[in-house]
Amino acid sequence: IQLSLMVLLAAFFDFLDGAIARKLGVASPIGKELDSLADMVTFGLVPALMVFQLLETTQSPFPLFALMIALASAWRLAKFNVDTEQTTYFKGLATPANTLFFIGLWTLHFSSAGKAMQAFAEILQSQWFYYLIIPIFSFLLVCNLPMFSAKIKGWKSKEAYWLYGLILLSVAWISIFGFFGFSISILTYIVLSLLKFFLKM
Known about the structure:
72% of the residues lie in helices and 3% in strands. The chain has 8 helices and 2 strands, in the order αααβαααβαα. The chain has a two-stranded antiparallel ribbon. It is globular, with a radius of gyration of 17 Å.
C-alpha cells in the first residue's frame, strides 16, 4: 500500500511539474530530459518490477517477461520527446496511466480482497493472465492510437465532456473497489478513447 501511495503521489506531481515550470518561467530542455528520466524510473521500471514480483508469486518460469513493460515505456517516452503533435492528446497510453493500471493489480494481489473482488484476485494467481496483459499494455504504450488527455482546449469543449465522464466513472470505481478501481479506471479510459476515436467526436 505504501509503495502504491508513493507512486500515486509521483503521478500527481508529474501532472503538475510541467505547468508549474512554465508558470514560473523555468522550463528548459534539460528539465524536459530530466523529467523523462524520472518518468522512466517511476512509470517504467517500477511497474515492470511490480509485475516481475507478481509473476514470481505465480511460480512463473519467465518473470523477466515483465521487463517488456520497461522497454515499451522507454520507447514511448523517447517518442513523446520528439513528437510535436501530442499537445492536446496522446498517441498511445501514457506511462503514468499504464502504471496506475498495474498498481491496482499489484495492490489487490498483496492485500486482503473482499468478497466483491475475490474473483478478480483469483485471476491474478494465473501466470497466463500476465502473459496476456503484458504484451497488450506494452503495445498500447508504443502504438499511435489517439487517447484524450487533460490538456483540453476549453472546459466546455467536446474533449472536456469525455474527461468529465472519465473522472466521474473513476471516482465511482475507486469508491467501490479501492486501489483496484485504478485498474478499472484505466480500462475505462482506454475504452472511452477508442469510442472517441472511432466515433470521431
